[in-house]
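Next up, a specimen:

>
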Amino acid sequence: MGIALVVALFLLGLQFGVLFVSAMVVFLVMSAIATQAGKRRKQKLRLYEKSRGIRNVVANGLAPLIMATVFYVTAARGMGMLELLAVIGFMGSVAAITSDKFASEIGVLGPKPRMLVTMKKVDRGTSGGVSYVGIAASAAASIVISLMVLPYAGTLAQLAGSIEGFAAVASIALGGFLGNIIDSALGYYEEKGIGNKFSTNFICSISGAVLAMIIYLAL
């Protein structure tokens, strides 16, 4: 499943195929590092989860795949600005899932979290719970993914006539981070039986994509 996703992203990405695949690889590597961080403490808290199923792959990979498809379709029609937005949307979705991963895996190592919606203290590992450690980690993760677009600034400029590297990086970083915040907000309802981890993860990633594109247009 994972190999098929990588091949699809490479083919759909055309001149950005390497960027698309590299972003997903970095996500996987960073996720593995975040998962292993504080392993013993997580095991004591019964929050260590190494294996990931197909549903997890789909939840995290669906939005990037959608954005890669949008890029391919717009590129086939020479729709410069829309191609640019699709690339930013793709990176925003990857930034969001990376941000979410760091928020959950690193956040549990910090102080007792608070439910984002109510701000009441909750147990570590509770969906919707946030801590300053998790927020800082999620922001840093989103920034790392956003910086990957810088080497492609020149290629992106050819699509829209001009592009500021800062605008691209800022929109991806902020869009990805806000996608994670939306994930945390939805976690509150997930705890109440409304939605599940699959739907929450997908909304997180697609929100990161959409917000990144909107922020870029605003900048």
